[in-house]
Design a protein that fits this description.
about 600 residues, Rossmann fold, single chain, TIM Barrel
């Protein structure tokens, strides 16, 4: 049997091991040094067969995963071990395919992971084809080690994979429904769509607490501000993803919810001391570590009143080793948030130094949203450090071991995400039909009556009179016109414009779409006119605290058509508003 035939049938030819054992120092500085390493190399050198795109399972049971991963990490060249710790984003080229640069990083550098961003996802079938292209390239490498393919598909506000996928109510809607089953099924149905596309890791659930209600970065992405509640919902969501074969990732450790700043642009600083964090932000992670959550994302946030001082938690050995691993007992992968963010690089002065520090701090995968040049300083300097600094060499190989362990555990077997997407499944299962029915129900279960001071709800034609819809959402207008007679609608662009005010004066009742601080100013301009005002609060209802004088308010927690339909249905009395705001709201 020749090498090509062996590859077809998933058999590792003896010459592959012999070639690996005979590599000279010029080819690699770290060669297989024992029989165990060679045996492991033979077992996994062909992780999946390219023919027909079917995954090939090489192991029975899971007892050997740690041992095999350790042997592989030791057998790899410096370059291959380092490459396993990198997760890169890419830009599609004009024909929709993945850029040549990301293909080179896979075929020549053998990186271990890629990240799907929103800019890759407008064409759903093309995304699936692109993932297949990248996985086939990975299969041609010496170890045939498949890629971790990750994305941010939290549901609700953060939905990087758009195209034909489901637009769901989101985490705060789950918190408002109060049912862990809703968290589980949200993870499961989101995971099924990702699985069809070949995406095997999701950067969700978000277990940041909604501690600072001025936070627009977290807001409706949070399950609420109760620590144990967020932990329960996070565990359920993660189990749903795992049931669909997708690796969940809890984020943003140790917690991004107590700041209104965005770490994409700056390094946020949270003044809470460690004892407060331990009993508040860290509770969900403590709970999820006991459930063996496979991965955690480290956040670019500073906590100056802890032993990490002014360093971002993502670059802090104290946070990632002493707290997360030693004190909490987390055993899985630690993945950085995007290292291109200013919150990661401000304290180090360069991306290259930040990436090195992130690895030394205890991160196992470094995520970067852009694709650097093959000989970018990040790669060159990290490789040089491996060959000159024994501590860094050991840390990189330990990180590679953790990455490989996760691949052995989750990227193979009957329930694993297919490495090569089945295009018929993509066409037939996205959007997921069963998921669509579930998400409609979740939107209905989460809708919340905040107040009804003048008995306007259920709203009838007699109560409404001349009805006016004001907001900044086309679905809001279209649905409103379907369900109400004698209604007009207006997309406002600025508070107190004369055209807007004239329309308000002619109305008897206003239903106002409130989703941001700008809307508060518009609402305030209506107050002197004495109209009946019903607010449909969308996303976080925190802005209702600023307008306690409105007559009635219904809260929904997403801006999809399902959430808006649920809101209108509650206003009309067609469904009960049975949800509960999952954080302390003053405007009641």
């Amino acid at each position: 049997m020749n090498a090509e035939e062996a590859r077809e049938f998933g058999v590792c030819p003896p010459e592959t091991a012999e070639k690996a054992a005979a590599q000279s120092p010029a080819q690699t500085t770290h060669t297989p040094c024992n029989v165990k390493a060679l045996k492991a190399l033979c077992f996994v050198c062909l992780f999946f067969v390219q023919a027909k795109g079917f995954a090939l399972n090489f192991f029975d049971g899971g007892d050997e995963e740690e041992e095999l991963a350790s042997a592989l990490a030791e057998a790899m060249s410096d370059e291959d071990a380092l490459a396993q710790t990198l997760m890169l984003g890419w830009r599609d080229i004009s024909d929709g395919g993945p850029s040549l640069l990301i293909q080179e990083w896979i075929s020549r550098r053998h990186i271990g992971a890629v990240k799907v961003f929103g800019w890759n996802t407008a064409d759903t079938p093309q995304l699936a084809r692109n993932i297949g292209v990248l996985q086939r390239l990975a299969a041609r490498n010496q170890y045939s080690m498949p890629l971790i393919v990750a994305t941010d598909q939290e549901g609700g506000l953060v939905r990087h994979v758009k195209g034909a996928t489901s637009d769901t109510p989101g985490a705060m809607a789950i918190g408002a429904s109060g049912f862990p089953d809703d968290a589980y099924n949200s993870g499961y149905y989101i995971g099924r769509e990702l699985s069809a596309l070949g995406i095997n890791m999701n950067f969700a659930p978000t277990v940041d607490l909604y501690t600072n209600h001025s936070s627009v970065l977290i807001g409706p992405r949070s399950f609420g501000d109760y620590p144990e509640y967020a932990g329960i919902m996070g565990i359920a969501f993660a189990r749903g993803l795992l049931a669909a074969g997708v690796i969940p990732t809890a984020k943003h450790f140790p917690g991004h919810g107590d700041t209104e700043l965005d770490s994409h642009g700056v390094l946020p600083s949270i003044d809470a001391p460690f004892d407060v964090l331990w009993n508040r932000e860290l509770v969900p992670y403590r709970m999820m570590a006991k459930e063996r959550i496979p991965a955690v994302m480290s956040g670019h946030i500073a906590f100056p009143n802890t032993e990490s001082a002014g360093s971002p938690a993502s670059l802090s050995k104290w946070f990632l080793n002493e707290v997360l691993r030693d004190k909490i007992g987390f055993k899985g992968l630690v993945i950085t948030d995007d290292m291109i963010m200013n919150g990661a690089t401000m304290s180090t002065g360069s991306l290259s130094l930040a990436v090195k520090q992130a690895l030394l701090a205890g991160n196992d995968i470094i995520m970067m949203s852009s694709t650097p040049a093959l000989d970018d300083p990040v790669w060159v300097n990290l490789l040089r450090a491996m060959r000159t600094e024994p501590e860094f060499m050991a840390r990189v190989r330990d990180a590679a071991r953790r990455v490989i362990t996760v691949k052995l555990k989750y990227l193979r077997g009957a329930g694993a995400v297919p490495l090569i997407p089945d295009m018929e499944r993509v066409r037939n299962e996205i959007p997921d039909r069963k998921g669509a029915a579930f998400f409609q129900g979740l939107a209905a279960r989460s809708v919340t009556l905040i107040k009804d001071n003048k008995d306007l709800i259920p709203l009838t034609a007699e109560k409404a009179g001349r009805l006016f819809l004001a907001g900044q959402n086309l679905d809001f207008f279209e649905l409103g016109k379907k369900y109400f007679d004698n209604v007009s609608a207006y997309w406002y662009s600025a508070p107190s414009s004369e055209d807007l005010m004239q329309r308000v004066r002619r109305a008897d009742t206003i239903i106002f779409y409130l989703s941001n601080r700008e809307g508060i100013e518009v609402l305030r301009s209506f107050r002197p006119l004495g109209k009946k005002i019903i607010v449909l609060s969308v996303l976080s209802p925190v802005y209702l605290n600023e307008v306690p004088w409105v007559d009635a308010a219904i809260a929904v927690y997403g801006n999809s058509s399902d959430s808006l339909l649920a809101g209108f249905s509650a206003i009309l009395g067609k469904i009960p508003a049975q949800g509960a705001v999952p954080f302390t709201l003053n405007s009641r």
